């Protein structure tokens, strides 16, 4: 069985699209996402929508938690001050626009869900 | 590119954006500086307060006198007293209407040079120039809807990673179609860089021969110029602003650099 595992998408929708195409070409039967859907990239909502629409089992990364909750629990290190400014703007945007990534499960719930399948 | 004789004269240089005008001038100044003690003057009319080329010349050759708009008579006086003056005409200037060139006294020697990419022929420049110099650089294909956007950056300090991201976005069309862009930037470690891009070519990064600025915000010139079409000026400003460091972070970096300098001594 071919399993595709991905993570650290960081709001990069174009990269996600390219990876999904590659997974499709490789004919993986199952895809798992290990979190960090959002962060400092330009398209957080598009990334979350895509992951949800494909029903990809996903755990919540520390960036996902921090961006949505406005926390700094994992002391995430932005790659540049530009990314940090953009990330913080996106954080505000995310909180004000339906909190789309809030419903991503935490690690434990993901594994429980997976074990039930 | 070949050089001209070192004689007292005004040399006006024209060419498209990215053709190599400033590179040719820097080459001529280098040769002149090695072979004579003749005074050298540089002037770029209508370059405003964000005179990147003039500042680059001044940094590379501190002995060259840089003149600005309003000092045209000083330029004539310098040449009358034996100097050689390079007058760089921006691609946006109308060569047919150049009051400076029209007012050059007959007593002064005056020479017009067009810098064109090798193998390319531009009637506008060839009919104007006394001499065409072929450069190895290729020029940007510039549409008639060209925009020039300039911004001073003096006092701003860039996070290098952020500047890299911004420059990539800029040259890849994230803020509109860019034919040419160049700038002088102060970085967090106190160094200053000149970055130059012409469409279709790789960006060039040159560390400038300036002392590291480690005492607060740099009090020396930095700035950016972008030539393109459909430029989103407000987004460029927003991104540039987001690339710049706060006073607190600048101080933090500067203290680290100074400490490491003390350790290495």
Which properties best describe this structure?
heterodimer; A: 117 residues; mainly alpha; 5 helices; elongated; B: 265 residues; alpha/beta; six-stranded parallel beta sheet; six-stranded mixed beta sheet; 32% helix
What level of helicity do the residues of chain B show? Answer: 25-40%
Question: How many helical elements of chain B?
Answer: 8
DSSP, total strands of chain A:
2
Name the overall outline of chain B.
globular
Averaged pLDDT of chain A: 76
Strand content of chain A: 5-15%
Lateral arrangement of strands in the main beta sheet of chain B? 3-2-4-1-5-6
Number of strands of chain B: 12
Q: How would you summarize this macromolecular structure in one to three sentences?
A:
The complex is a heterodimer of chains A (117) and B (265). Chain A has helices spanning 13-26, 44-53, 62-69, 81-96, 107-116, and strands at 3-6, 30-33.
What does this structure look like?
The complex is a heterodimer of chains A (117) and B (265). In chain A, helix 3 crosses helix 4 (81-96). Chain A is mainly alpha-helical and 117 residues long. Chain A has 5 helices and 2 strands. The longest helix of chain A has 16 residues, at 81-96. With 265 residues, chain B is α/β, with parallel strands linked by helices. Helices cover 32% and strands 26% of the residues of chain B. Chain B contains 8 helices and 12 strands. A 6-stranded parallel sheet of chain B has the order 3-2-4-1-5-6, sandwiched between helices. In chain B, strands 7, 8, 9, 10, 11 and 12 form a 6-stranded mixed sheet that branches. Chain B is globular. Chain B starts with 8 loop residues before the first strand and ends with a helix. The interface between A and B is small, with 7 and 12 residues.
Secondary-structure blueprint of this entry?
The complex is a heterodimer of chains A (117) and B (265).
Chain A: E1 3-6, H1 13-26, E2 30-33, H2 44-53, H3 62-69, H4 81-96, H5 107-116
Parallel strand pairs in A: 1-2
Chain B: E1 9-14, H1 21-35, E2 40-43, H2 52-60, E3 65-67, H3 72-80, E4 84-88, H4 99-102, E5 110-117, H5 123-128, E6 131-135, E7 147-152, E8 157-158, H6 160-171, E9 177-187, E10 192-198, E11 204-207, E12 223-229, H7 233-243, H8 247-264
Parallel strand pairs in B: 1-4, 1-5, 2-3, 2-4, 5-6, 8-9
Antiparallel strand pairs in B: 7-12, 9-10, 9-12, 10-11
């Amino acid at each position: 069985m071919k399993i595709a595992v991905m993570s650290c998408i960081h709001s990069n929708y174009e990269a996600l699209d390219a990876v999904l195409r590659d997974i499709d070409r490789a004919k993986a039967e199952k895809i798992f996402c290990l979190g960090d859907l959002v962060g400092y990239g330009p398209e957080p909502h598009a990334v979350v929508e895509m992951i949800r629409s494909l029903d990809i089992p996903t755990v919540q990364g520390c960036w996902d938690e921090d961006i949505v909750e406005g926390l700094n629990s994992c002391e995430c290190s932005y790659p540049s001050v530009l990314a940090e400014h953009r990330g913080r703007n996106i954080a505000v945007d995310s909180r004000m626009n339906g909190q789309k990534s809030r419903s991503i499960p935490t690690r434990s719930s993901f594994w429980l869900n997976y074990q039930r399948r | 590119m070949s050089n001209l004789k070192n004689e007292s004269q005004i040399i006006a240089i024209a060419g498209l954006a990215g053709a190599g005008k400033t590179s040719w001038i820097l080459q001529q100044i280098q040769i002149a500086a090695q072979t004579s003690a003749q005074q050298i003057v540089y002037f770029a009319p209508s370059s405003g307060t964000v005179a990147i080329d003039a500042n680059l010349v001044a940094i590379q050759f501190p002995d060259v006198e840089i003149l600005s708009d309003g000092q045209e008579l000083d330029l004539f006086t310098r040449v009358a007293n034996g100097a050689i003056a390079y007058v760089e005409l921006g691609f946006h200037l109308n060569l047919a209407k150049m009051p400076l060139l029209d007012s050059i006294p007959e007593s002064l020697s005056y020479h017009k040079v067009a810098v064109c990419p090798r193998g390319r022929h531009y009637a506008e420049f060839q009919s104007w120039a006394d001499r065409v110099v072929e450069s190895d650089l290729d020029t940007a294909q510039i549409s008639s809807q060209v925009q020039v956007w300039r911004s001073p950056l003096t006092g701003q300090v860039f996070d290098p990673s952020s500047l890299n991201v911004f420059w990539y976005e800029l040259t890849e069309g994230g803020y509109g179609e860019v034919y040419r862009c160049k700038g002088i930037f102060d970085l967090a470690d106190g160094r200053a860089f000149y970055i130059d891009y012409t469409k279709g070519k790789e960006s060039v990064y040159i560390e400038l021969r300036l002392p590291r600025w480690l005492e607060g915000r740099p009090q020396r010139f930095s700035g950016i110029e972008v030539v393109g079409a459909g430029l989103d000026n407000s987004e460029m400003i927003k991104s540039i602003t987001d690339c710049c460091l706060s006073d607190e972070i600048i101080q933090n970096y500067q203290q680290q650099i100074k400490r490491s300098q003390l350790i290495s001594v």
